[in-house]
Amino acid sequence: MKRMVLLLVAVVAAAPTLAQEMLPGAGAGVVKTMQGNFNYVSDFIVKSAEQMPEADYAFKPTPEVRSLGQLIGHVADANYGICSTVLGEANPSKGVEKNMTSKADLVAALKGSFEYCGRAYSLPDKDTGMKIKIFGQEQTRLSGLLLDLTHNWEHYGNLVTYLRLKGQVPPSSQAKP
Length: 177
Prior knowledge:
With 177 residues, the protein is mainly alpha-helical.
């Protein structure tokens, strides 16, 4: 029992250091921590989009779900929509999912959406309590960022499934250089 308590104390004491190593910005403020996590997932999503061959952009695991290309477009659309709301700006890019089909266009739009959202994830913590209307509900800017971050992780999970079904190893499971 004493060993278990010592182990627990050691893990709790090491957690902040481990988090800072795993997620840049962890412990440096709420938005900075979220920004580190956002950069982490956006890298996985972009690498997933880049590694899938263009011929597989039409792939659907079942007829009822989005194709891989539509999923990439959906992520870009959601990033632009959510982050423009957080920033209090007009959405600079609508209809990626419906209007783009080529891998090159979709990857460019995806990268652009992550770059655009980078501005939202650079807000000072003191500005994140401001109220915004998102999907018809009054929320804070911080809630908007959390929604965007959660949405990106959700769809990275989808991309992992698409990649695995096509015999590919997702970026988060690839050997580190």
